Amino acid sequence: MDEREALMELSLEEKIAYSKKVIKEAIEEFGVDKMAVAWTGGKDSTTMVWLFREACKELGVKMPRCMFIDEGYVFEEIWDIFNKLKKEWDLDVVIAKNTDVSDKAENIGDMVKVSSLNERNRKEISLLEIEDEEFPFQPESFIGNHLMKTIAMNVFIEDNGIKALATAIRWDEQEARIEETFTKSRPNPPHTRIQPVLHFMERDIWNFIFKFEVPFCELYKEGYRSLGAKGSTVKMSDIPAWEQDLENTYERAGRGQDKEELMGKLRDLGYM
Fold first, then answer.
1. Distance from C-alpha of 94 to C-alpha of 77, rounded to nearest angstrom
2. Residue 166 pairs with which residues in a beta bridge?
3. Beta carbons of 65 and 33 less than 8 angstroms apart
4. What phi-psi label fits residue 267: left (phi over 0), alpha (psi between -120 and 50 degrees) or beta?
5. 197: left (phi over 0), alpha (psi -120 to 50) or beta
6. pLDDT tens digits for range 7-26
């Protein structure tokens, strides 16, 4: 059994302790003012925010600010849990949004002319080796994901002098993430990714949520297991997420599969 397998076999209490250790070491190295916590309103990132709050209480420091990416087509239910926990947990949240792109489209699917975008976005499109003069506004397409998520995130990091960004990716969630480590340097822009729940499995997340009575998005009760942009995310069952066969079915089956197939390339470009 290698180290990754051993960590995934830990009890829930041991996993929580390990996550807090990762978080505390990051806070001690970077300081809360130079850190941010990526929060999507989904089950994994809300679990991570809870762990950060507890670790910060134990260290006697304030909670780092959170970064919420508005990719332009967010579920209303995500906004509901966002507003609820922002208030109840007294979170300092910055919304990152690439408005230069989203403002060019009134509706999902509207065509956006590349020439209408600012220099930064035009340059990013050229790096994708896309030569079309326009593209449909689809937040989870290859170009949409890069512009509306990765670039929005990168601009947030640059503008706020962020040295470390915590994300809630997990080893068992997506094949492209299996080689990730708890801390990893990213070059563009230069910063360190802190990934404190890598060793949690999907079942662990739900056990954690119910054990500590962590609020979660209502969509999971309806059968959604992984939440992306509205319109490109569907539920694969009508029973609550935690009652489904988590161990033998694909968690992200309800997400846009074009994006899933390109996940490795998207991550090379800086995606979470």
1. 19
2. 37, 194
3. no
4. alpha
5. alpha
6. 999 999 999 999 999 999 99
Question: Measuring CA to CA, how many Å separate 269 from each of 135, 168, 262, 265?
Answer: 19, 18, 11, 6
**Side chain identity, residue 260:** E
pLDDT digits (tens, 9 = 90+) for 188-233: 999 999 999 999 999 999 999 999 999 999 999 999 999 999 988 9
What is d(CA 145, CA 1) in angstroms, rounded to the nearest whole number?
A: 36
Tell me which residue of 200, 242, 246 sits closest to 11, measured CA to CA.
200
Element (H, E) at 266: helix 263-268
- Write down how long the chain is: 272
The CATH classification of domain 3-107+145-268, taken from the options 3.40.50.620, 3.40.50.2000, 3.30.565.10, 3.40.640.10: 3.40.50.620
